[in-house]
Design a protein that fits this description.
single chain; alpha/beta; Methyltransferase, Cobalt-precorrin-4 Transmethylase, Domain 2; 5-stranded mixed beta sheet
């Protein structure tokens, strides 16, 4: 399916500035969540730095965006940052996107933004959907204060869990499908019977929220589908 992006909204979205880095949020699952401003910005960029050209290529094709793409994933971030800042210094408009959601949040981009700030290059964010906020709202836990951990490391988890236990507020973690069952078991050991919400396939047709106390979830661990990335919300208030 190809969307027909109308120029009707262009006059309300404003001009895209030259020599500026735009940090553009993309949908976390449902493509309908993209904003008119995001499409407008990407369409009018000289260069788009993307995490995965295959994933972003589908997004570009869907919305008729023909701007040039350059891969910008974690392993090449350090080497390509200077190249992109050079483009910006040459008055090019550059957009930075990740595979889903907002760049720099557990995704590449923080180094590039820092480099731009050091070189007095203007950075403009284009906000959008957030798996962190989406999961927090769906959890039903206290939203007044929360702590975002991001992905758990593969090593040194014990000391990190002990640190997280002392943070008396809602905790939000990311986890891959490959380690989700292991992590649920660990959470039940370190957090006891705290309420937990496992959020999977967010905003998609098969969005699933699995809620329960830690020990209950650990007993049902084999029923958890190992598909997609997970956002884990722990009620540690």
């Amino acid at each position: 399916m190809t969307y027909n992006y109308s120029n009707l909204f262009s006059e309300y979205l404003g001009n895209i500035e030259k020599g500026v880095l735009y940090v553009v949020s993309t949908p976390i699952g449902n493509l309908n969540d993209i904003s008119f401003r995001a499409i407008h910005t990407l369409k009018n960029s000289d260069l788009i730095a993307v995490e995965d050209t295959r994933v972003s290529g589908f997004l570009m094709k869907t919305f008729g965006i023909e701007s040039k793409m350059v891969s910008f994933y974690s392993r090449v971030e350090k080497n390509k940052t200077s190249r992109i800042t050079d483009e910006l210094k040459n008055n090019k408009t550059v957009s930075l996107i990740s595979d889903a959601g907002t760049p720099c949040i557990s995704d590449p981009g923080a180094k590039l933004v820092s480099e731009c700030i050091e070189n007095n290059i203007k950075v403009i964010p284009v906000p959008g959907a957030s798996s962190i906020i989406h999961s927090l709202v769906l959890s039903g836990f206290n939203t007044k204060e929360f702590f975002f951990q991001g992905f758990l490391p593969q090593k040194g988890r014990e000391s990190l869990y002990n640190e997280l236990k002392s943070i008396k507020m809602t905790l939000i973690l990311f986890e891959s499908k490959f380690r989700i069952r292991k992590t649920v078991g660990e959470l039940s050991r370190y957090f006891g019977n705290r309420e937990i919400a496992l959020c999977r396939e967010l905003t998609k047709k098969f969005e699933e929220i699995i809620r329960g106390k830690g020990r209950e979830l650990s007993k049902k661990i084999n029923l958890i589908k190992e598909k997609g990335e997970f956002v884990i919300v722990v009620d540690n208030n």
